Amino acid sequence: MNQWSVSVQKMIDWIELNIENNPTLLGMSNEVGYSPYYCSSLFHKVCGVTLKRYMAGRRICYVAVALRDTADKIIDIALRYGFSSQEALTRAFVRAYGCTPYSYRMEPRPIKLSIKQVVLNPDKNLFGGIGMTNSTVKEANARFEYIPAHNPTATRISKI
User: Fold this and answer.
1) What CATH number does residue 26 fall under?
2) Residues ≥6 apart with Cβ < 8 Å to 38
């Protein structure tokens, strides 16, 4: 299972590095060294989502960030992230977020972005069997204080 995770993490990292170059399954399989079918099925098995859906989600996520943070033309953003036209981007954006790219740019609002998957972590015993699952956690005492900003002479309320 660890070798699978390492291979899938390589796929994910490759996708992130090549997101502006219109990454393909064939290009990724050449980079990783497995057949396209094996890459696709392994990715789905480990991540729980198809490779095509993952790449589409990441592309539209990068588009949303570019719309919010840059003044680039929408057509330029569409072409940069592999959409054939501004209309194709608009269809995908409306399907993903329920609004057009132009309306999102004019009034950005919180949307659910597709984040980068991480399939490697220390809990999976990748570092010589030492994982965080064996560590003990002690309860900590907490102290909360409320001090109103407008009244500097207010008394402190504390709880332990």
Assistant:
1) 1.10.10.60
2) 29
